[in-house]
Predict the 3D structure of the following.
Amino acid sequence: MKVLVTGGAGYIGSHVVRQLGEAGHDIVVYDNLSTGHPWAVTYGELVQADLADTDALDAVFEKGRFEAVLHFAANIVVPESVENPLKYYSNNTRNTLNLLGAIQKHKVPYLVFSSTAAVYGMPENTMITEETPLMPINPYGASKMMSERMIQDLAFATDLNYTILRYFNVAGADLESRIGQATPEATHLIKVACECVQGVRAGMKVFGTDYDTRDGTCIRDYIHVDDLAKAHVMALDHMKAGGGSNIFNCGYGRGFTVKEVIDVVKAESGKDFPVEEVARRAGDPDALVAMNDKIKSVLGWKPDHDDLSVIVKSALNWEAVWQKKQKES
Ligand code: UDP
């Protein structure tokens, strides 16, 4: 298929581009390179442009005649979204509106959208299905929820088919360390711990040890980025085969605590580093775990890397490569 990938130079987008390229799709990446990197685009053509630039967007659609769009481009830092909400409503929600305008105008039939477990907010039941009510507790989650709604409304009014993927905690990297998470000022747990191993940080903090969990720290469902990427490729194939529109949670259906994750990073790297226990971070629910029955039964998706050690090892290997790459440039 001829596909447009917005945000294809970023962490998750670049892993999806690799798999799309390996599957023989013809790819154009549309990325403003605010957090992405040209070297991360391993297949297809890279167009450096912003989704706010509707003329540039229209020109790319006019030339590309795409059959599908995969939309990753977004800001994703929750605390930043609380401090600067309009950045999120503009870069995430309004830019999705721009993209949908181009999709409608150029009659693109298929869309895969990157959404997030943050749309659920702080659910009462920690095992989350796709029917769990959407009650985001920060502008990041709200910006994605609004985008989901616009996509659904457009699909209702036109021939557009969509797949909305709600990601849980994405981690790890390409097993050959060709690409990985290279976003500046990352805040995600496994990335932060890997930076400690590499000596980029002197130590790290555990936010809250009084949660209602087995060791008092938060439980999250960590999914390897290549298993998540596979879900995108399968979603495209499913829509193309007439499967229609869907929303899927993307996670493994099991969780690890913050302390368990840090222990695995220390064990796999053989390095110790200082860990300070501090107060809770605002807006962290005790536990978030995906019910993934739907994606398994509808798409036939199944994980290849459901092993925290594999996730952590791939993240550690990538972090070493990435730190070296930065020193050399
Ligand atoms: N966390 C932590 N220290 C860090 C980063 C994260 O204790 O330096 C905790 C965070 O409070 C949460 C879990 O790790 O309970 C996962 O956080 P992350 O930011 O990776 O993902 P989120 O679940 O917020 O999307």
